[in-house]
DNA sequence: GTTGAAATTAGTACGAA
DNA sequence: TTCGTACTAATTTCAAC
């Protein structure tokens, strides 16, 4: 249920094109903008805020849902109030060709909220929410360490979540998110040496799908 | 609007206690469980699925909202369909006592979906969604590098998002998420040496609040 | 793509268990 | 507290424009 679609993040992003489904115009984006702020708004109220008719709003709403642009509606819950006050990130190095097993084990860990495969020093990052720090420790040493696919882990704790946007959309803040090549100031006062881009570690190119 | 409440993640988690507001019983949790899967469900249908009366469902629903256990309702959007096919993590080292500035600058970057302050080698992790890899580059070198508070960055790309749960709740999978100390098998076949826990780097204890 | 009216459903209030 | 019912208000659907 929580297994989400492969999003092709590693492939080449085609700037202008919007997936393969319906073309999203600026009204579609505005609908998404309203909906990510208030997922329970009525379609009638949505229509008014977007500036279109009710019927049109229903049509577009359904289209966005059917197309998959809207994946689901969800409630954001306060983890602390829910009793899960500790959040940690665990960076995992996965043994080659054991990704399938790793994924399978992940699905069996309810405390994992998010898992992404990354380039860089580690292979995956998982975010867990638990009640106390001891639970993080037991999770890493008792659960993760028992997975043969896991070669090594590195755990850091989240001290504060500064920002969390429901979902980032293109055009937020009017600024086009494509690379505006202009680059007005070539690179005067920027200590570029301090900026590291970390590519895939070993030969992890073909690993995006399970092996 | 996206500035979320300090969640005290770094403090000591008190296992049994549920915040300071209302006590959440198992019915409250069940409501949250349904709501995080379908944020647009009607309260009538919610009542039925949870097994309580409509009136009761309305009362509890409002209580959860008022208490803050439910922070908001939102739509999950497919970033690829929305034209933001690239996701990256940027690990940032922040100059001491410039957190306030760093936070302020973050709020002005719409491509940032998430930012957390962490222990470990870096001070913060931010997740960005953009249209193409060039946008990541320009974001890091042109925007982040210009912030005096930013000492250094390290960028990795997300190749695939394996798992994304709307929100983790206690009791998911019946397993108590508190540390069950029993530890049946002391530590036989586990290569504990491979498991690293990374604490705060310098004297970053008091940095959870802006300085 | 829009408007308006009918049918359905949601939200509220209140008394009883 | 929780439930059940009746009442009111709103939303969704469907038709014609």
UniProtKB/TrEMBL annotation, chains A, B:
Keywords, ordered alphabetically: DNA-binding, Transcription, Transcription regulation
GO molecular function annotation: sequence-specific DNA binding
GO terms under biological process: response to amino acid
GO cellular component terms, semicolon-separated: cytosol
Domain called HTH asnC-type: residue spans: 24-85
Region (Disordered): 170-194
Gene3D superfamilies given in the database record: 3.30.70.920, Winged helix-like DNA-binding domain superfamily/Winged helix DNA-binding domain (1.10.10.10)
InterPro entries: ArsR-like_HTH, AsnC-type_HTH_dom, Dimeric_a/b-barrel, Tscrpt_reg_AsnC-like, Tscrpt_reg_AsnC/Lrp_C, WH-like_DNA-bd_sf, WH_DNA-bd_sf
Any single Pfam family the record assigns to this protein: AsnC_trans_reg
Protein name per UniProt: DNA-binding transcriptional regulator, Lrp family
Organism: Nonomuraea maritima
């Amino acid at each position: 249920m929580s297994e989400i679609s492969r999003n092709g993040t590693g492939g080449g992003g085609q700037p202008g094109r919007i997936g393969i489904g319906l073309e999203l115009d600026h009204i579609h984006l505005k609908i998404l903008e309203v909906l990510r702020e208030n997922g329970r708004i009525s379609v009638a109220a949505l229509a008014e805020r977007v500036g279109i008719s009710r019927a049109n709003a229903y049509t577009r709403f359904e289209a966005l849902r059917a197309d998959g642009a809207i994946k689901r509606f969800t409630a954001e819950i306060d983890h602390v109030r829910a009793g899960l006050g500790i959040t940690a990130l665990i960076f995992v190095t996965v043994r080659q060709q054991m990704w399938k097993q790793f994924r399978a084990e992940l699905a069996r860990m309810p405390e994992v909220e998010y898992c992404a495969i990354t380039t860089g020093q580690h292979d995956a990052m998982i975010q867990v929410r638990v009640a106390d720090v001891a639970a993080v420790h037991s999770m890493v040493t008792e659960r993760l360490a028992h997975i043969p696919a896991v070669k090594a882990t590195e755990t850091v704790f989240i001290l504060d979540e500064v920002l969390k946007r429901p979902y980032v959309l293109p055009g937020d803040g009017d600024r086009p998110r494509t690379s505006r090549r202009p680059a007005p100031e070539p690179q005067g006062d920027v200590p570029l040496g301090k900026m590291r881009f970390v590519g895939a570690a070993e030969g992890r190119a073909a690993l995006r799908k399970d092996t």
